[in-house]
Design goal:
binds octanoyl-coenzyme A; EC 3.1.2.2; alpha+beta; 6-stranded antiparallel β-sheet; Thiol Ester Dehydrase, Chain A; Thioestr_dom; 199 residues
């Protein structure tokens, strides 16, 4: 296998689609912030204030509950401006990262973005609302392949962007080893745990 194909975002033929974890929120339920300081999903100054719900991915056969999906909403505010009156592309990518990143934790523990590919299909004016929908396309070992689309002002509004991503499952050590100590302590990690993780 070449290096390029090993790192592709194409879903491998032997990937599977596991069910939602029994303790995960159910279809239609709001997904709570994974970190009270997250600039993606928590209600903090400077954040994008994304709201997300578990969606029902009916899959090609139309069977309810066979897949795992997330629906998200984000108001496009003045402070997200790039071109005059238009969203900065980085904010659209942040919106995709947050929506896509909410899918795998419905199945497993924490995952982080390893790769994110975005197609900007149409300009997004400030003052509109973005509606995003992401679904789990396949899982292989620690790798979670997901894809999403973004629409303007309603769930079936004009398509403004699409994205594919790979999330890699990590354990608590990832955060203990790399995160800023005061932020880890604010969510309950002890100084001892942090020291131990860093060796
Ligand atoms: C709590 C939830 C938070 C969610 C917040 C929203 C999401 C985010 O924005 S997370 C923040 C941004 N992301 C990051 O900071 C991640 C930084 N990167 C890393 O920490 C590491 O590179 C990490 C964890 C992704 C992978 O490292 P590591 O654990 O050593 O795994 P590694 O063995 O290299 O890779 C595992 C598999 O993924 C594949 N892979 C890793 N990176 C990539 C990539 N960029 N492209 C394609 N494939 C990749 C590898 O090829 C390997 O595949 P295989 O199983 O077939 O051999």
């Amino acid at each position: 296998m070449t290096q390029a194909s090993a790192r592709s975002l194409d879903v491998p033929a032997d990937a599977t689609i596991p069910s939602r974890h029994p303790k995960a929120p159910g279809v239609g339920e709001r997904i709570p912030p994974h970190n009270p300081a997250c600039r993606g999903c928590a209600d903090v100054p400077g954040g994008i204030h994304m709201e997300s719900w578990v969606d029902d991915d009916r899959g090609e056969g139309g069977d309810p509950g066979v897949g795992v999906a997330v629906r998200s909403r984000m108001a496009v505010t003045d402070d997200m401006q790039g071109g005059p009156g238009l969203i900065h592309g980085g904010y659209l990518m942040a919106a995709f990262d947050e929506c896509l990143g909410s899918v795998a934790p419905l199945v497993t523990r924490s995952c982080v973005t390893a790769r994110l590919e975005t197609d900007f299909r149409a300009p997004v004016p400030v003052g509109t609302t973005l509606w995003l929908r992401a679904r789990l396309d396949g899982v292989l070992r620690r790798k979670y392949f997901v894809s999403a689309e973004a629409r303007l002002d309603s769930e079936d509004g004009p398509l403004v962007g699409t994205a594919r991503a790979l999330f890699v499952q990590v354990d608590l050590q990832h955060f203990l080893r790399h995160g800023r100590a005061e932020d880890l302590e604010a969510i309950g990690a002890s100084a001892e745990q942090i020291r131990a993780a860093r060796g």
